[in-house]
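Weekend entry, working from home. Most of the wet-lab plans are on hold until the incubator is repaired, so I used the time to fold the two sequences that have been sitting in the queue since the last round of cloning. Logging both here for the record. First:
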Amino acid sequence: MDWLRRPRNWILIGILIVLNYVVVNVLLAPQPPKQVTIPYNVFRAQIPADNVTSVTIQGDSITGITKNPVGDTPTSKNKATHFATVKPPFADNELLPLLLQHNVTISAQPVNPPTPLWQTLLFSFGPAILLIGGFLYLNRRATSAAGGGVFGIGQSRARLYDPERPATTFADVAGIDDAKAELQEIVDFLRQPQRYQRLGGTVPKGVLLIGPPGTGKTLLARAVAGEAGVPFFSVSAAEFIEMIVGVGASRVRDLFNKARQAAPAIIFIDELDAIGRSRSGGVRLSGNDEQEQTLNQILTEMDGFDSREGVIVLAATNRADVLDSALLRPGRFDRRVVVQPPDRAGRMAILMIHTRNVPLAPDVDLNELAQQTPGFVGADLRNLVNEAALLAARKDRDAVGMEDFSEAIEKVLLGAERKIMLSQEDRERVAYHESGHALLGLLVPGADPVRKVTIVPRGRALGVTVQSPVDDRFNYTEEYLRARIVGALGGRGAELLVYQMATTGAENDLQQVTMIAREMVVRFGMSSKVGPLNYSTEEGPGPLALQKPFSDATAALIDEEIKRIVQECLMEAERLLAENRSRLDALAQALLAEDSLDEAEILRVTGLKPQVVTAAMTAAR
């Protein structure tokens, strides 16, 4: 019967048996009569007095029944008709004749009674049963944790998603329309393979999704399976690797076998670079290590199946530059789909998806939010919506408003607000520092519009100036890059102008300045002395990747040009701040009074007009 196969029913039966035993043998069992222990001489004295009616002898132990209650002493209050005593070893042998003489009923029991059958079975087979049960329990736990148990460690850990109930389709993917269009052909092939095979065409065996973290590579792969309505085997590349050599290769074979049996199907390998790194890089102590065996098995499997079988391999990575060239050759990962961060329209479409189940207030403008979040990818936008919903719930609101989204943007970009007490002197220094950033954002041509400035500590910063563009931009001029450097040095310039000394508050600014100036010189060829050459050192897989592709003299020239660009921008920042000292003082005093100023308040205090520019977002600290 099916109900006997369920472990829960067996547990219930065991509980009922235990309860029945307790009721029958403990609660309903008759209570034994009261019994007292008396000395042997008291027992011997009761026999001639004809007070003993029966005894039971078991070795030297004697129990019995008397006509009248007896106790251990004549004056004892603890008396009963049932007694127990022990015959001393040196006692006489006249006890039996004496008992017969006074007509006492005599019974005897063996000293070592036979062991019940159930006890014999329990002590004989119980330990073995316990060991076997424990082994089966541990094996069952290992089965669920390692996929196959002790004897199935080589089985694949891939998760299979039900094709009948797809959790994700293309309707859940937005902002990466170019990648969706390229993968639509894969969906069509899985739905109608004859359409492509009738002309002798074959669909690529492997499709590699390349893009920064959070852009939606895994989501896109699941959407392909959901649209095609086929089984979807999802596994992380790191799950193939174990301490035991050969386990990864075994799991790869098992994964491809399962996919062939379920064909048409999709295999998705996330973070392919975990096992697909180039085998030519670094120094290997042995050519037979686990990572290389697993990679070789993947290459073999992709060579061994025909694309007409209906098995397509999707893989995702954000480090395509370190992958082995054997993975990227035709016949394996034939097609590469680049998943880029979304543009403004894409961000708005993503926000629309993530806010479908979020009640929004009438003042929420998703288009404005998309404008304020350049550089955000799908994962960032999802986190932004979640943070805004949490902030609104914390304030007991019925809907998420624009104010909640603004606070969420600040929290995501800059960190949570810190409740620290600054001295009046420190607050004034921070106010001038941030006023220098904000003022230069309004004065320097081509700079990003200033959206907000605050001296409320957030994250590691004591104050923040937020600049965001009107729209996305994908090409940058030298003028814009210099404007970024001048604006980032506005805090240091204001400190030198007002206090004639520098503080540690410009640490993050200097990091940004150094990075931009270096990129201008070594990547973009924006130095007349270095020339239109690219000296960037991209991280590569080989052991020579850390070597500089230029001489020491060129390195010294690069350092000089970086320093020259930064010094010129600092001089420009100091000049503009000195010419607008009154505006700087007014902005700092307004910050000290209000703690935070938005774009309209900044323009009102400084008396300047906003510039119409487009660029990438900057958060100057």
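Second, folded right after the first finished:
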Amino acid sequence: MRWLIRRVLKKGKGSISYEDDIHFGEILTIGRAADQAIFLPDLRAALNHASVTALGNGQYRVESLIVAGIRVNGEITYTKAVGTGAVIELGSTRLTLLDARGEFDAAVEVSTIDKSEQAAIRSSRSKPTSLEQTWIAKRWPSWTGFILVLALGLILPASTHVIPGFNTVLRYSPLPSTSFWNPGEVDAAHQFFATDCKRCHQHAFLMVRDNACTSCHVKTRAHADPARFNIPELGDARCGTCHQDHNGERGMVSRKQSLCSDCHADLKSRTAGASQVADISDFGKAHPEFHINLPGWAGNGEFMPKSMTWTAGLKENSGLKFNHEKHLKADGLNTPNGRKTLTCANCHLPDAAGSAMQPIAFESMCHECHQLGFDTLAPGREVPHADVAAVTYTLDEFYARRGLEGGYADARAPTIVQERRRPGSPPMSRQEQVEALSWARDRAREAARTLFTGKACVTCHSISPPSGESDWKVAPVRVSGVWYADARFSHARHETMKCADCHAGAERSQASNDLLIPGIDNCRQCHAGAHASDRVASTCIACHAYHQSKTLTLDKPGSR
């Protein structure tokens, strides 16, 4: 295929001349590279910028070889089929596709767009940047905008201070209320999308709806069942009632006591007796005695904690024997490693969060003194803790091996067990093996009885002897760990207190069922209600969470 490339050369005084060139091939390449059919010495052109394919009958296909596209007939395109007369603009070059004649199959005219023409093109394509370039005058739009801002941003919100209830109307309307004046820094938890206003403000000029919150907080627990407790403040409550953003990095959670006491001060009458929770309005003046979570068991033996009101004589049956007085002697205890004085911190260690205490661990806290050795001839051997089957297996394995190997220096053992068998000695007869293993079985049972009822297990646990085919039984140990089930308490926030300030009498307690958990009077020595002046002002949220329903979550249909 023969292409005619006609270049238009402009000379002085408006005269022009033509320079023809011939290109062979179906595709005409355009760009700044040296191998292009039409070379463009323009930095705005890519090395391989575009191509034109002759389709025949005066039809062409123009394709862009770069992401930015190419302008054809005044429009940016990536590929387009055109006819003769189509104009391609690339920087300061204009290419016009012609109708081929004579011996040529396709033709294109290449000309230069002069500076004045380029300026006119840019001007026609540019957007207006000033009012003078439009039909809009300056004065009346300015006055209109000023009046709208004055009315919506000042007069309307300010009127809520003189018209009772008007602010509530505005809050549920598309019009701005007083909150229009007070945008601030968002909470720390929302900082990662602080610039994405639509994440929460899904509807213009409307308050944040609940579904904007629950779309992220999907499994947040509800407070109570609004169908069972038909209280308008509960059923109609919005997330924004308690959680208002733009109040600083730690301003999302409202700590006002009235948010809780407005309902709980007379909750029983509000729910027509449906609620069994006592009426509460102030921690210092109107708060019932604490409810304590204590160990308990169902009829089938399954562990089932029970909650009861704290009293001074309340007992905690955890299944463990422990004497605090014996372990907290001021002059210390005799241990295998010498005299040692114990304190509360030796056994009661806070968890990683500093809130609750770690469970007592026998290996790290008790084993130093309460070792589980069972044979004076093997002082390094011990049975495992907290596994009756493993204890029995360890004893059977130990004495069976001693009986078969021999050399066990115990006058009570048979001769075949006491004799040391040297290499090369004849193997034990069948009768000797039976005698050795019979001794081993009896000796293991004796050691187990000594461990469980004599010097080890029975010291801390309640033990039941074997019956028939059953093994020794150790009463399960169940310590509550969290005694205030419906409240929060953090030891880390009370580091300045001594253990005895709250757990009074621990150093004199001789029984493990003594409940050493304090009641409300102990806490009231330092804490009072929201309006306290001589003690720590403590509102409901200091100890209680709002979202604590055990069955309901906030991811329900509908929004407010």
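Plan for Monday: verify the second prediction. The chain has a mean pLDDT of 88.
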